[in-house]
Specification:
Helices cover 43% and strands 15% of the residues. It is globular, with a radius of gyration of 22 Å. The termini are far apart. The protein has 311 residues and is α/β, with parallel strands linked by helices. Strand 1, helix 2 and strand 2 form a beta-alpha-beta unit. 30% of the residues are buried. Helix 9 runs antiparallel to helix 10. The structure holds flavin mononucleotide and iron/sulfur cluster. The site of flavin mononucleotide (FMN) has 12 residues, from helix 11.
């Protein structure tokens, strides 16, 4: 962040982190205090003429506050509603000033690139997508956790080489890749190379790098139900398509999970999420079509098998 501040001429950086992550907050605050003591933060750092300081800001736990403009609103002490774009934060961000918003992983790559050079970094990953990616692997794997792998590593290697394979020797059923609003992938995607460019071709996303792995016993409708309930809870209510759409999606998926759904209900899930994709104000509402359409792409028979068949 200091390097980013130096590059853009900023004197102040904020680390926005959910208030629930007490241990991470404690560690960050300790590291910042230590850096100040060493003279690496604050006024005239190491007598370079460059001044920069950091503050940790605790969020109240709303998912939408990860959206850059909602994050800025929240930093300003307001409710975390996304702003209209343009103007983009780079021209009008925090308190109306030009602001750079970056992911921690992006910033963490910078010192190594400066230290070792761009060619070194490009030596990892693929031509179109150099470098590495940090993944959070959770679900039915033997060793869940955080890993860093080269861009272009296959989903199979991530699961079987890095995460110890499927727990209790069960079979792989699928994975939800890219976070809660990511895409489901079936076994036919195990050899897909994981990087931002390649996944786009499969209508999938790498997103935050979260991979939720499901074994053969996982109920896809149940998974979809959890995802949609999460988004109904996290919809900030600012725009109509997402405020009402998430509520309707939950009613429909609950009906299907309860064995009372009809074929038309599946069609409605798709249609509503398409309208949300095209008309919602921010990516939270826009992205729900992805888990819905991908669940049907890879697990169509299972989802259709859960609704009452026409007589
Ligand atoms: C609903 C929503 C939630 C998000 N949550 C996060 C988050 O928790 N952490 C994060 O780094 N970025 C999150 N993002 C992405 C950020 O808004 C931003 O685009 C990103 O951090 C930019 O950094 P990068 O260009 O370095 O990747 C979220 C975006 C949306 C739309
Ligand atoms: S899409 Fe959802 S989260 Fe985004 S502004 Fe609209 S209601 Fe809020």
């Amino acid at each position: 962040m200091m390097l980013a501040g130096y590059a853009v001429g900023a004197a102040k950086g904020f680390i926005y982190i959910r208030g629930e992550y007490a241990l991470s907050i404690e560690r960050l605050e300790k590291a910042i205090t230590q850096a100040r003591l060493y003279g690496l933060l604050g006024e005239n750092i190491l007598e370079s003429g460059f001044s920069f300081d950091l503050a940790v800001m605790k969020g109240a736990g709303a998912y939408v506050c990860g959206e850059e403009t909602a994050l800025i609103e929240s930093l300003e002490g307001k409710r975390g509603h996304p702003r209209n774009k343009p103007p983009y934060p780079v021209t009008e961000g925090l308190w109306g000033k030009p602001t750079v918003v970056n992911n921690v992983e992006t910033l963490a790559n910078v010192p190594e690139i400066i230290r070792n050079g761009a060619a070194w970094y490009r030596g990892y990953g693929t031509d179109k997508c150099p470098g590495t990616k940090v993944y959070t692997i959770i679900g039915n794997v033997a060793t869940p956790g955080l890993i860093e792998a080269e861009m272009g590593t296959t989903l199979r290697d991530i699961i079987y080489e890095y995460a110890g394979g499927i727990k209790e020797g069960k079979k792989f059923k699928g994975a939800l890749v890219g976070g809660a609003a990511g895409a489901f992938m079936g076994p036919e995607m195990l050899d897909a190379k994981m990087d931002f460019v390649n996944l786009k071709e499969y209508a999938a996303v790498l997103g935050s790098g979260a991979i939720l792995v499901m074994d053969e016993s996982t109920d896809i409708v149940g998974m979809l139900q959890s995802v949609l309930h999460f988004f109904k809870h996290e919809s900030c209510g600012h725009c109509v398509p997402c405020r009402l759409g998430t509520k309707q999606l939950v009613e429909i998926v609950d009906r299907i999970a309860g064995g009372k759904g009809k074929v038309e209900d599946i069609e409605s899930l798709v249609k509503i999420s398409e309208v949300m994709r095209d008309t919602s104000f921010c990516p939270l509402g826009q992205s729900l079509n992805l888990p819905i359409s991908s669940s049907l792409k890879y697990f169509r028979d299972e989802v259709y098998g859960r609704v009452q068949q026409p007589a």
